[in-house]
Fold this protein.
Amino acid sequence: YHIKRYISIFGFLVMMGSLFSQPTNDECISAIHIPSIDNYCSWIAEFTNYNASATPVLSNTCLTNFSSEVWFTFIPATPAAIVQVFGAFNNQGTLGSPVVTVYDNCGSFTQIGCNSASLESNISEVVIGDLIIGKVYFIAVDGQFGNQGTFTMCIDGFIPPPSPESDCDQAVVLCDKSPFFIE
């Protein structure tokens, strides 16, 4: 009986400690790597920014005062990607007004995409193009107004349609009967 009681108390303390500890991906250098962004979606409310600390050098971003961002990395296999963060929306998390920012590297923090959620939607989405295939990119997720909570993240790489041209001899062919694949 005493052993079971001690095991229960120990399990409770471990669970409480994990609730109050910093996330493992609190810093850019310890970002969680997403191995494939081909239709990737995390588990519902899999990630959190509870008790994450701020990175003070992130002042030139769409969120001017990062307070509790967490970090992820990905390596694209396509020249464009869409990153979506679902906070307190449709039971996909508890993070209010999430912000998602994509950076070129960890250190100089060159922002290549950023978007913040509206107060009503609690969904943030950023589409980034001109990615270098095989290069590591960094994603920071935070909440506006110091919000903290759980969230679901989805990333999908894609090949963007070609841009229209103004000259006839450089026109983009919309249908050339080339085969294509649809899942």
